[in-house]
């Protein structure tokens, strides 16, 4: 699998990065092991997780698989801090103290002395951005994180964070954002800023919560997330979205591949995108997504998808 530079930094990440949001929830530890084994066998070497995933169980599962499924030094680990759910509801706290505490917890859970990339999980108006970024500086200077970045920051927010960190001689190398054929809002501001500043983009929900796999093209499967929590998928199944999905499925049929492969190959070729973070509930879903690693979408197909999804 292709390794992509993360922006202008020296860190390289797998173009298809393995997301772990479901580990410890829909996916039990044995299922997580099977996913990581399948991913590593396909040449993957980057895992994305977070302090707030699975009330901490997700990072514990990641840690249990290190040196067993894959040696620690051969795996690039990305984790995030600033969001927790231990109280039963989503709590955002990007204060210096909270971020430092959460990173140390993450390191203990995974049984590692450092993470390769540590991100602030979301923007917050409180506390001051300077305080939030001081935790990133601390993580780098103490060796807890090799590289740092942000997540879900708009273009101006990312630009401001980068300029402040430059004063500390700590580069901001990444921004993890929602980006897909059905969610191209980032192209208005965030993508151009990332291109200009040399920041690598990590795209979460690259298949628009499964909508771009084509499985909701005709109906909603009874065992799908759309059936269980329809509000989650409603924004991805409106009239415009269905037109995009039809175009993706048509392209996939013509190329003899899956709609997921077409969608991911389109995304990983976009400016500033270093990786698409893929998450799957089942091994067949994961294998289908991994097929995009070697797929090149013809220019005429890319242009058609650009037009219908704009």
From TrEMBL:
InterPro entries referenced in this protein's UniProt entry, alphabetically: AKR (IPR020471), AKR_Detox_Biosynth (IPR050523), Aldo/ket_reductase_CS (IPR018170), NAD(P)_OxRdtase_dom_sf (IPR036812), NADP_OxRdtase_dom (IPR023210)
NADP-dependent oxidoreductase domain: residues covered: 16-308
Superkingdom of source: Bacteria
Pfam family, one: Aldo_ket_red
UniProt-recorded name of the protein: Aldo/keto reductase
Organism, as annotated: Luteipulveratus flavus
């Amino acid at each position: 699998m292709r390794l992509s530079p993360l922006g202008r930094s020296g860190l390289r990440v797998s173009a298809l990065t393995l997301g772990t949001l479901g580990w410890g929830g829909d996916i039990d530890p044995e299922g997580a092991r099977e996913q990581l084994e399948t991913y590593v066998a396909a040449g993957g070497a980057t895992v994305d997780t977070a302090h707030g995933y699975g009330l901490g169980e997700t990072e514990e599962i990641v840690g249990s698989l290190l040196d067993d499924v894959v040696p620690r030094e051969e795996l690039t680990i990305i984790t995030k801090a600033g969001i927790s759910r231990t109280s039963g509801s989503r709590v955002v706290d990007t204060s210096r103290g909270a971020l430092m505490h959460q990173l140390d917890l993450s390191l203990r859970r995974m049984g590692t002395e450092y993470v390769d990339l540590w991100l602030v999980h979301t923007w917050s108006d409180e506390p001051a951005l300077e305080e939030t970024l001081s935790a990133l500086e601390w993580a780098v200077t103490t060796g807890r994180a090799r590289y740092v970045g942000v997540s879900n920051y708009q273009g101006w927010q990312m630009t401001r964070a980068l300029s402040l960190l430059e004063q500390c001689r700590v580069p901001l190398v990444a921004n993890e954002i929602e980006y897909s054929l059905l969610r191209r809002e980032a192209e208005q501001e965030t993508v151009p800023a990332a291109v200009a500043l040399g920041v690598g983009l990590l795209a979460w929900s690259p298949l628009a919560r499964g909508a771009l796999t084509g499985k909701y093209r005709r109906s909603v499967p009874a065992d799908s997330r759309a059936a269980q929590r329809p509000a989650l998928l409603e924004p991805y199944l409106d009239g415009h979205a269905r037109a995009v999905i039809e175009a993706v499925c048509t392209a996939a049929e013509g190329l003899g591949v899956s709609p997921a492969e077409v969608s991911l190959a389109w995304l990983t070729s976009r400016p500033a995108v270093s990786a698409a973070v893929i998450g799957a509930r089942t091994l067949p879903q994961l294998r289908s997504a991994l097929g995009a690693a070697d797929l090149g979408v013809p220019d005429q197909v890319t242009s058609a998808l650009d037009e219908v999804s704009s």
